[in-house]
Amino acid sequence: MSLRLRPISRPDHLAFIAARPSASHTQIPAWGEVKPDWRAESLGWFDEGERLVGVGLVLYRPVPKLKKYLAYLPEGPLIDWYDAELAERWLEPMLVHLRQQGAFSVKMGPPVVVRRWSADAVKAAIADPAARRLRDAEATSYEPRAFDVADRLRRAGWQQTEPGGEDGFAAGQPRYVFQVPFAGRSLDEIHRGLNQQWRRNIKKAEKAGVEVVRGGPEDLPAFYALYTETAERDRFIPRPLAYFQRMWTVLNAEHPDRMRLYLARHDGDVLAAATMLTVGEHVWYSYGASTAHKREVQPNNAMQWRMMADAHELGAAVYDLRGITDTLEDSNHLLGLLRFKVGTGGQAIEYLGEWDFPINRLLHKALDLYMARR
């Protein structure tokens, strides 16, 4: 059965996502408004009965002085990735449309899980001197269908982007993430799943009088002050305050509880802050920030536990702590963040990663060279 692809309305896009248990926050219509340097378009796949069976948010980034675009579908599109005719039925109509829109290259991130490592498996890998990267360690489980998807993509001319960037973080969406499964678990069970250090730190924060509260848009500057301090400490380039203000406005205009802000306070000082995003049954710890001041009162553990408790109350099936490094060497400055996330008792997950389709090979190669220099 053939499928037809065409642009769809925002309400149709949102209705499709609302009917699914999970979809990435980077595939909701409002995400296009978070990225003002990109032009956004919602696409829909329709079967022969005119039923909407897949959607994708495409972000078009223009090339200066040329009417050409990089077309990007972060953590998408939302289609049947396991269809034996994946390329013919789903991807070829998309490429035809994107080529007509002036795209010289297409980048997408299939939301397909490849491997999972339990918290114990990650801890063992960190302790193993022979395991330099997470991918070197034996996984707890594999998804064999993911390898079939990868084969279909390669045969169709798609090129897998190798995990790049410092310490395994790619320039796009993370290939390795850490998630805590909530489905079918009580909050007490989730608390028992935390490691001993986490439980001790939560109790210590409570005794010290750390208060975790929900903030509003007026509290974003306080979050941002901690965020810039964190950026300097963890060696990344911070986004501007306007980015978070725009994110708050457009995401919560689409859904009143799409984005939350949490603040951990102690004796009037804001010690940690984080944003939380919700789409369906999937909740993300999105951006986190903290100060080195008063670290001994454990504000980060207290804040995360409050966010996890609230996510559970919302009916979350997954609490997603987002990207992790896959580099396990002691010299890696992000290893501490991985250890922190492992303490939640969740699991490390490897996705299929991002894939490119060069429509204009010359321009695609030029983009690769430009990104490598950056």
Polypeptide structure, described:
The strands form 2 sheets. The chain has a 9-stranded mixed beta sheet with strand order 7-6-15-9-14-13-12-11-10. Strands 1-2-3-4-5-16-8 form a 7-stranded mixed beta sheet, sandwiched between helices. The chain is α+β, with helices and mostly antiparallel strands. Mean pLDDT is 93; it is low at 164-170. Helix content is 36%, strand content 26%. β11 and β12 form a beta hairpin. It holds the Pfam family FemAB. One of its GO terms (molecular function) is aminoacyltransferase activity. This is Peptidoglycan bridge formation glycyltransferase FemA/FemB family protein.
Entry summary:
With 374 residues, the chain is an alpha+beta fold. The chain has helices spanning 10-18, 31-34, 86-100, 119-127, 144-155, 187-193, 196-208, 220-234, 241-254, 299-313, 335-342, 361-373, and strands spanning 4-7, 39-46, 52-62, 69-73, 103-108, 113-118, 141-142, 159-160, 176-181, 211-215, 259-266, 269-279, 282-290, 318-323, 347-351, 355-358.
SS-based class: alpha+beta
CATH superfamily of the largest domain: Gcn5-related N-acetyltransferase (GNAT)
The main sheet comes to: 9 strands, mixed
Shape: globular
What name does the CATH topology of the largest domain carry?
Aminopeptidase
Total count of domains: 2
Using the coordinates above, name the CATH class of the largest domain: Alpha Beta
Please tell me the CATH architecture of the largest domain by its name: 3-Layer(aba) Sandwich
Compute the number of helices.
Answer: 12
Percent range for β-strand residues? 25-35%
Question: Over all CA atoms, what is the radius of gyration?
Answer: 21 Å
Mean of residue pLDDT values: 93
Q: Whole-Å distance between the termini?
A: 44 Å
Family: Belongs to the FemABX family.
Pfam family, one: FemAB
InterPro entries: Acyl_CoA_acyltransferase (IPR016181), FEMABX (IPR003447), PG_Glycine_Bridge_Synth (IPR050644)
Organism: Streptomyces aquilus
